[in-house]
Amino acid sequence: MTVEAVEGALPTAGRPEAPAVRAMFGGIAGRYDLLNAVLSLGEDRRWRRRAAQLARLRRGGRALDVCTGTGALARLLWRRVGPSGSVLGVDITEEMLSLAARAVPEVEFRVGDALELPAREREFDAVTMAFGLRNIADHQRALREVWRVLRPGGRVVILEFSSPRALMRPLYREYSRLVIPRVARLLLGRTGAYRYLTSSISAFPGPEVVAGWLRDAGFERVSYQRMTLGIVALHTGRRPA
Ligand SMILES: C[S@@+](CC[C@H](N)C(=O)[O-])C[C@H]1O[C@@H](n2cnc3c(N)ncnc32)[C@H](O)[C@@H]1O
Is the pTM of this model over 0.90? Predict the structure, then answer.
């Protein structure tokens, strides 16, 4: 994909359309992991480790990672379920999935939309989604799909950017304004994709609202924890047994 195609197809924060989202991630797939590591100062690995832990999977368990990208969280889930278990990673962007398939051959990856998951009802013990929900226009439908494929008693874990604590807000605003575009230009040779990143983060609601979405979708024991001074939040819930 050309730089022009990525720039021309940038999604709109708050109402991201799937084709534009796919075009953007397709264009940055090769640099995605590096950018994540640099922009989060390596924290992204700790966030995903915690997400995998909160999925509370056992050996032999079955897990689904929605919006799996290059498969970083899917890999951590697989380590927990082991060879007797199974992990499926789903994403709409083929370029991301081909990197995932090469990096994590133990996991099965399928191209698919979070709004219509390519999975059976009640198939999984846990469903995770890291930095995906923000990119999906219809979050209610996405959460209903998670519900559908979870077995009763199964757990949902959602990792997403959040509104940082008051102390951190001015610093984070300046970081988004000054640092992210410069790093993006350095690593990608363009800034458009990361304009979307910063605008979609600020358009995304705080953790109380996301917790409400989970409750509305029917999950119980809904809770969340902030990490790294509230830059991200980890949401958990359970499909009633
Ligand atoms: C910010 S990346 C997150 C990737 C990975 N989960 C991680 O932790 O790094 C968002 C991913 O969501 C995928 N995505 C966006 N909308 C989607 C949808 N409707 N269905 C499935 N995947 C989607 C994108 O293709 C992209 O790979």
Answer: yes
Can you count the helices (H) and strands (E) in the chain?
10, 7
User: What are the extents of the domains in the chain?
Assistant: 41-165+204-238
| Exposed/middle/buried for residue 107 (C-beta within 10 Å: 0-12, 13-18, 19+) | buried
Mean pLDDT comparison of 22-31, 68-77, 223-232, highest-scoring range: 68-77
- CA-nearest residue for atom 14, ligand 1, is 67
Domain 41-165+204-238 class?
Answer: alpha beta
Which residue ranges have their beta carbon within 6 Å of ligand 1? Answer: 18, 21-22, 25, 36, 67-69, 72-73, 91-93, 96, 113-115, 130-132, 135-136
**What are the pLDDT digits (tens) for 8-54?**
456 776 667 888 889 889 988 999 999 889 988 899 999 999 999 99
Q: What was the pLDDT predicted at 199?
A: 83
